[in-house]
Structure formats: C-alpha cells, structure tokens
C-alpha cells in the first residue's frame, strides 16, 4: 500500500476541480516524483473513470483522486433572492439560470463505488469528513485515505475515522476552504500557526497547504512537521494545467492583484482574484453550496467563452504572482531542489 514517505519528492499537486486539474498535470507531477491528483469534483463517474485510466496509461507512479463530501443542502428559498439578483447577469450573457437542484450530491455514491471497485493509491476528501464506513471500504480496497482539515477540532474528528493522513489547509490557500461546517466562518489561523497546532494534536502524517509558492515555503512546512507540501496555484500557469486562457492571463494582469475570500460563485467560502463579479455580488451571496454553484455555472461558462476574466471564478492563493509558465515536471523538480537546499542550509 502506498505511503507518503515513499514519494521521491514530497510535493502534492492540489486537485483544482473545475478545469485547471487535468490528466496531463497529474501525470507530469507523478512522473517527476511528486503526487499528482485528479479532481473528481464536478465530473460524472464516467468522466472520472476515463481520467483515472488516462493517468494509469501515462504514469507508472502513485497518484490520487480528490472527492467532495456532500453536505446539508439549504432549501431553494435560501438562494431565491440571489437567483433574482443574478437575473441581470443572465441577461448580460444571454443564458438561462437553472432551477436549484437539492438532489445534487456530485455523484457521491457512484464515485465511491468506482473507487472501491477500481482502487487508486490515494483518495482524499474535501468539504468534510467522509462516513467511517467509506473510509473503511476504501482502505480495505487498498487506498490510503486523506482528509482536508482547517482546524485542530476537524483534525481530531478526521483522525477518529481511521484515516491515513491529513491535509492541513491554511487560509492563504486558493480555491475552496475545506471547512467541515459550510455555515461557519473559516478559521483565520495562518498555516504557520495551524500546522504545528495540528501536529501537536495528532500523530498522523500531515500534508501542509496554503499559499506555498517557493522552495523556502516548502522547506518551512517540512521543518514545522509536515510530511509533504501541497501546491495548487503554483501549477495554474503550467502548460499541462487545464486553466482557461482568460484565467491564466488574469494571474499576471495588474488589475487582479488582490485575492479575497468570497461565496459569490459557489455559496461556499473560497479564495480568488477580486474581479467585477465578486465586487458586485459578494455582499449578498448566501451560504448555499451547491445551489449557488449551479446558478453561476452558465454565467461562468459564458464568461469563459467570451474570455472575460471579470465573470470567472479565478481561484488563487495569496502568492499567485509567483506562479510560473514552465512545465509542471520541471517546476516540481526545481521547487524540491530549492527546498532541499534550504533544508540543508538550516541543518
């Protein structure tokens, strides 16, 4: 069974659901010696199975699959005012807003069935702790199970399920926070403080993530007790990433300097580049994942087709300006060389 300590390069590529995560990116990172990860989020089981087969065909190395944990879905009435507000956006783009679907579980049962029947080396979870029976089934099938946590309390809850490792996510991270309770304000404790606090509360191996963008950053979390470092934003501009053209450009455009945490696109807190959509809708966006995500999906698709970054969810961490346009394998190897040198100097 795979173990994080077996990685030649202790770097994990964040899954990045919604486009940036790709077979090519996961393959490049795993081939380089890190752990490439596929995002199961927003894919059908057939699409996920095809991507898993794609990675296996191109990389004789360990890789992971990340799954969103279903959560309590609010009543459609909770997002009705926001839907009315977004009507002007729909008119702007010439699209129709969908009716909220409370039955949307992102094919949870089918994906778990797929991953237990055809196991992969690592299965990680975001948005909460999976049921204990799911953890047991995946481990029995031969997968290592990792849960994303954002507080010490979440770490203890996940450890009690018998998982193999924790991904400790600081608030500096781009994309969605892994907070278990979608109604709770995300904990602001920076990764530099959160990581040692979690390390003191559990004996599980830890993957640290949140704004890491350099060899020095990676060395820092490894010295603080992490077994590996996870990076997402750093890979957004690599040629292997499935990042949309307007999204790539926004990462370097002066007008998109700031990142903010918002519910405007999905109904769940996530960090991204501040743009027009966030400025106009953040204040009124309700807690309402996945219903809000459903509402904005056609708007985001239209904006992407038009190349309008101001209508996209530009998920990015606080150090997004350090993302480079270099091959993912080369980036993985160079970051680790820099981190290893920093660790050597500190020893």
Write the layout of secondary structure elements.
Elements: E1 11-13, H1 23-32, E2 36-39, H2 45-58, E3 63-68, H3 80-85, H4 87-93, H5 108-117, E4 122-126, H6 132-141, E5 144-149, H7 152-159, E6 165-169, E7 175-176, H8 191-201, E8 206-209, H9 215-223, E9 228-231, H10 245-250, E10 259-262, E11 270-273, H11 276-281, H12 291-306, H13 328-346
Parallel strand pairs: 1-9, 2-3, 3-4, 4-5, 5-6, 6-8, 8-9
Antiparallel strand pairs: 7-11, 10-11
Helix pairs in contact: 1-2, 1-13, 5-6, 9-13
Runs with pLDDT <50, length 5+?
none
CATH structural class of the domain at 4-70 and 108-243: Alpha Beta
User: So what's the overall shape?
Assistant: globular
Mean pLDDT: 97
GO molecular function, one term: oxidoreductase activity
Keywords: Detoxification, Flavoprotein, FMN, Monooxygenase, Oxidoreductase
Cofactor: FMN
Pfam family, one: NMO
Keywords:
347 residues, alpha/beta, TIM Barrel, 3-stranded antiparallel beta sheet, globular, flavoprotein, FMN
